[in-house]
Design brief:
By secondary structure, this protein is an all-alpha fold. 64% of the residues lie in helices and 0% in strands. The chain is globular and about 55 Å long.
Length: 177
C-alpha cells in the first residue's frame, strides 16, 4: 500500500507539516485581504478551499482542542504555517493597523475576524486566536507577550484583560517620564 493510500485509511493521520509549509500561499490565495477593497469574500473562499483540499479543516473549525495538541510538534508546526499564511495574505496597511490600535480596538477587530471566519465554517480555535493575538502585538508589548504564556488556563478574555493592564501601565510610565 502506498503511503498516500495508507494516510487516507487512517482517520488520525494528518497532513505532513513539510508539505503544508511548502505550499506557496500566493499561488493558492490569489487576493490580498485589504480593509479598503471588497476582497474578504474571495480571500475567505480561497482559504476555505485550501483547508479542505489539504485536510486542515480541523485546525480552524474547533473540532480539535488545540490545547491538547500543544505537545504534538506536527500539529503546532501546521498551526504556525497557517498563521504565517494569514499574515502574508493581508495588506501591509491592514497588518500595520494592528500596531496603531489600542489593545481594545485590536482585540475587538481580531475577535470580529475570528467570528467572521466561524460564520463561513472556518472556525478559529482558541489556540490559533491566542497565537495570532500575541504574534501581532507591537514591540512595546514584547515583555507582556512573553508573560502571557505563564497565565494558567489561557483564554482570549484573560489575555485581553492582561494586555489592557499592561497598556495602562505603559501609558502611566510615559506620563511619568
Amino acid at each position: 500500500m502506498s503511503p498516500s493510500a495508507s494516510s487516507y485509511s487512517n482517520p488520525f493521520a494528518g497532513p505532513d507539516p513539510a508539505d503544508i509549509r511548502d505550499i506557496n500561499i500566493h499561488d493558492r490565495v490569489l487576493v490580498i485581504l485589504d480593509a479598503t477593497d471588497a476582497t474578504y469574500f474571495a480571500w475567505k473562499t480561497y482559504f476555505s478551499l485550501l483547508f479542505r483540499e489539504n485536510n486542515l479543516v480541523d485546525h480552524v473549525d474547533g473540532s480539535v482542542d488545540s490545547r491538547a495538541m500543544v505537545g504534538d510538534s506536527e500539529w503546532t508546526a501546521i498551526d504556525a504555517t497557517l498563521i504565517r499564511w494569514f499574515f502574508t495574505t493581508i495588506s501591509k496597511d491592514l497588518f500595520h493597523t494592528v500596531d496603531d490600535q489600542s489593545i481594545d480596538d485590536y482585540c475587538r477587530r481580531l475577535k470580529t475576524l475570528a467570528d467572521e471566519l466561524r460564520d463561513i465554517g472556518a472556525k478559529v480555535d482558541d489556540d490559533l486566536l491566542l497565537s495570532t493575538l500575541t504574534a501581532c502585538l507591537n514591540e512595546d508589548f514584547g515583555n507582556a507577550s512573553s508573560n502571557l504564556s505563564l497565565i494558567p488556563e489561557p483564554s482570549f478574555p484573560k489575555f485581553v484583560a492582561y494586555l489592557r493592564l499592561e497598556e495602562r501601565r505603559m501609558k502611566g510610565v510615559k506620563k511619568c517620564v
